[in-house]
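S.,

Sequence below, as promised.
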Amino acid sequence: MKFAVLDFETTGSQSSDEIIQAGLAIIEEDRTVSRIFGSLVNPGIPIPPFITGLTGISNEDVADAPSLEEMMMQLVPLLDDVVLVGHNVTFDFNFLQNALDRCGYLPFSGRILDTIHFLKICFPSLHTYQLGMVASQFGLTHDRPHQADSDALATAHVLLKCLEELDHLPLITVQRLSDLFTDEDSDLRWFFDGLRAERENRPLDETEDQGKIFFRQFALAVDDWTDMTPVRDEEDGNPLENVTFQQYMQQVRDNLSDTLPNYESREAQDLMFQEVMTALDEHKHLLIEAGTGTGKSLGYLLPSIYQSVKQEQKVMISTHTINLQEQLRDRDVPLLTKVIPFPFQAAVFKGRQHYLCLRKFEHKINRRDFSSPKEDVVTAAQMIVWLSQTKTGDDEELNLGGRSSDFWESVSSDSDSCIGRACPWFRKCFYHRARHEAGMADVVITNHSKLFTDVKANHQLLPVYENLVIDEAHQLEEVAGKHLGLNLKYFSIVHTLMRLYKDSRSGQLPAIRQILQGSGHEKASEWLSVVDHMLPDLLSVKEHWDRLSDQLFGLIPERGDALPGEAGQFTLRLSAAKKPKTWTALSEIEHQIYLTLGDLARQGDRLVSELREDLDDYSAEGLVTDLNGLFKDLASHREELHFFMSLDQEETVYWMEANSNYRSKSLQLYAVPIDVSAQLKALFFDKKQSVILTSATLSVDKSFQYMIDNLGLKEAAEQNKLNTVLLPSPFNYRDQALLIVPRNFPSVKGTVGDPLFVNTLVQSLADAALATQGRMMVLFTSYKMLRQVYEPLKDQLQSSDIHVLGQGMDGSSRTKLIRRFQESPGSVLLGTSSFWEGVDIPGEALSCLAIVRLPFQPPNHPLVEAKSELLQQQKKNPFMKLSVPQAVIRFKQGFGRLVRTASDRGIVIVYDTRVIESYYGKYFLHSLPGPKMEHMPVDHMVPRISEWLQAP
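The prediction came back faster than expected:
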């Protein structure tokens, strides 16, 4: 097989655009790159500036370049008898066909393969398929990204890497892949057929199968979880029997010094070790604020492991984001395994939907139950290879893009469709493995979401625990509201309906119908008539739900300050006292859904129990369990929708959200408790021996009162069962951060800036960006304002080679934008809400942070409104009790983006003069960890910035 790897640079992505450079790399049958062809092309039209910015190819470069016809005369002979390959090949192939046609050649009719498909299948856990990133991850030299010859060569090396990977896959995996593509009329089918034939004719190489377990025609990376043994032998006694916490920590510190060359003990971290241990020891709760650089993960992990092993009592650790959960597993626990002087076990346990159900997956690919075949076949191929690598079966390891999330939803584990010990896969099951590990572990790392799911399931999901550490605790109240309340999405109902019955060929009901038709069972015709009776009812529910969603969406006004496509761009609060005029008519549609779903659930339950009892068909067992789960889902959706539409709980706030891109299909219904403090108190602070809450932002103006009130810790504080600690910052903020307020800056009301405000802001940001050579992040509170600033700022900075990146401006995800910002030093990143926290850009990539407005939440958000009303009823001032503390915590999160390490140095500009003019401004400034603060006229700012950055 001879490959020709093609890449074009063009003036744009439309078929009417022109080629400005061509690159081709030829891979011979012995897998050597024998030739690289590269040529600039004169497009006959000006090259757009952004293309020059991307490729480095200017109008001057192509002025004397060959025409398209001249370049094609050299390129066409190289395409003889080759398999054409490209990275996202459709793009290059379309330009090639167009060029062949224009220059009078016959169209290319050979085989075409895409390296993106190969990367997905061969490296299912790569976090990106972007060529530059893949090349650097594989250690390939790719010295001129976005230049055609360099891209073609890099793509050729990526292809060779994939072919090498395919060579080492177990034969059974290759056979599975080939079977998977059998029905596809595609070049991938041709490729995998050839690979299979070649591998089946090759002598068996035992090394390919080393470490693999073969079961039901799959290669797996793990054996039965029932064979797992605890890390410590009970007969050896307790390794901490006569060891004090001080002795244990001394040993750990010595080992840390030996393991980490630059390890030095930090005052804040040492204090944290002690405070966490005291709280665990004395059965107290603890609020502990630990800023960036404290090393708070180790700060609570080391005492937790000591307590757990010494007392033989599990400690539960909960994080807000899966990211932090992964970081603890991949970075902190492996380090601790090296430095703790005895074996211990830390297990990560996520929500059940994160684990693959092997039974459902096997069933899906054996039946080829694909809703969008082309994409689903590649996703299935990706997962077949992943099964030979994964030890956890956790979806976070997989790079699932596009519609793959729907695929995952149909094969992920869930309690209602689990057949437990009756499942042939039970001993290999990833969810039961994680659960078993958690049961044996000393510390279990979970997330806030799972914590509340466990509470709602009467503590059936997590192992029993008495001590709990909550990291990222400033998020606890919001997560509690979402989980203790209700959030029903348009697609929650639609997916359940579709999985039951999509059309006569796909869905669980048609699948069971097929089995019943061939079963010859005496009750088969009776059961078939029940199934047939259900199908029109399911369609009728779908029609009614579509109608109801459409009409509910029609009630919601657009919110002015949200991203297009962002949840909450359209928001409407509802209450029993202020029902919309059409509510009675809408309730009638809901009543119809309620009745029909009630009938369906009853018929479904009866059918499932009869099939379980009487149908003795092994192949139907899993299907019947899945059906049972889906009917249970329908019953719970029915109750949730009914609860929402009744609007009758006084202590609950009801609202709807949607966005303009997907309209009624993006509809979300919320019913959330206004105040969760009493529930948190009852569920955690009254029940658990010790709850430790930590975050970089828990205090407001050095006081924890806001958190104590909102999280239900008042009684614990009064009974002296709560300790609060503000750790000193490990950084020298006075030398590392300068905060500037331009005191004569125009003020602005609302979410839109007037011309004076926008022009002054753009000019000031452009001047500051020149002084800091980009490396600047600008945080907005309103998307409208970001949009007002984006284009004019881009124009101002264009001539200085400083790129402006804007959230929501070119469809790039948050992760992509942050990566681009880090990779191109001369850039300015504009972001709204999701950029205020969780963005970690250490070093020089970020030297200046601009905060445009103080981050007050929109007062008209339904939850904020309802909380304010409650405070008013209690004769409290909602602004000082709610709005200011919330904004201060957010402000501290934003400020925390700047200094991430002891050597970072930079500037924060706060353009909102309320911070120095208003009576509440001091709460914002006093809450910061001590940066140098100055205010000055706008035109004095740039000289001061330059002076500060140049100071030694």
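The CA atoms of residues 715 and 721 lie 8 Å apart.

Coffee later?
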